[in-house]
Amino acid sequence: MGSLQLQDFxxxxxxGIASVVVGHPLDxxxxxxxxxxxxxxTLKCFLTVYRNESVTGFFKGMSFPMATTGxxxxxxxxxxxxxxxxxxxxxxxxxxxxxxxxxxxVASSVAGFVSVAIGTPVDLVKIRxxxxxxxxxxxxxxxxxxxxxxxxxxxxxxxxxxILQKEGIAGIYxxxxxxxxxxxxxxxxxxxxxxVFCDWATPEGCISPSPFSVWLAGGVAGAISWxxxxxxxxxxxxxxxxxxxxxxxxxxxxxxxxxxxxxGLKVFFRGLTVNTVRGFPSSAAMFLGYELSxxxxxxxxxxxxx
Length: 306
Known about the structure:
Solcar repeats: 3-86, 99-200, 209-296
Subcellular location: Mitochondrion inner membrane
Membrane topology: Multi-pass membrane protein
Strand content: under 5%
Largest sheet: none
Structural class: mainly alpha
Low-confidence stretches: 134-149
Shape: globular
GO molecular function, one term: transmembrane transporter activity
CATH class: Mainly Alpha
CATH architecture: Alpha/alpha barrel
Helix content: over 70%
Family: Belongs to the mitochondrial carrier (TC 2.A.29) family.
Number of helices: 10
């Protein structure tokens, strides 16, 4: 692996950790809204979690994504940047050539495909831990022996092994199709708007965008991406939350049909507000961490090799 590729992977790691720290509390609210019952709107969900579980309730399942999302983001940014350079060399004869819209679309799609292999198990464990105390109506579901409100998993490792033992590899990758349908187009409307807004926010004559430009462009890109991807994010969250106390859905299509039949079209926009709001600070932290660490590594390399 060349130095440029290594720098992209390391910078992605830093950005991923930053995004988890900033975005996890709102991510918990989003998951409860999309996959839980009895929470109502965003404000009611926020107040219910705080009243029943205090501040710690917003950080349920955070240790696992903290340890793994850095790796996940490292792969996403590394694959995206490496693919862009490969396309630049292939199409323009220069790996450093400014990428075209088509180049960015292909690179975003490839990053989305590759990321799902890591992201699906991470999201599954995170959502299962976030949903352990969800309220369930005992009248219409046959529950597993563990009572709702009582923790089924002792932590992320126990959660992972429990799912693996009971459901096998297929259980660990539950929701993969929904995640592909979310992430492949999702990364296209993530990286491309970021590049557009970054250029727009950077004054003429500047070689690189300022930290504020990066923060603003990253935040706007995140809000757009998460807002547009909310319908499939709802399906993915429901599929992955399914199985904590019961098994309701047979697959992605069945989840879509059952959700629509039971709750109407509006169910696919559940969590839209919190998704969009969370997308701004989380993605702003992601891109800022990525760009600043990348710049620091390049500066250090220049000083080491004048």
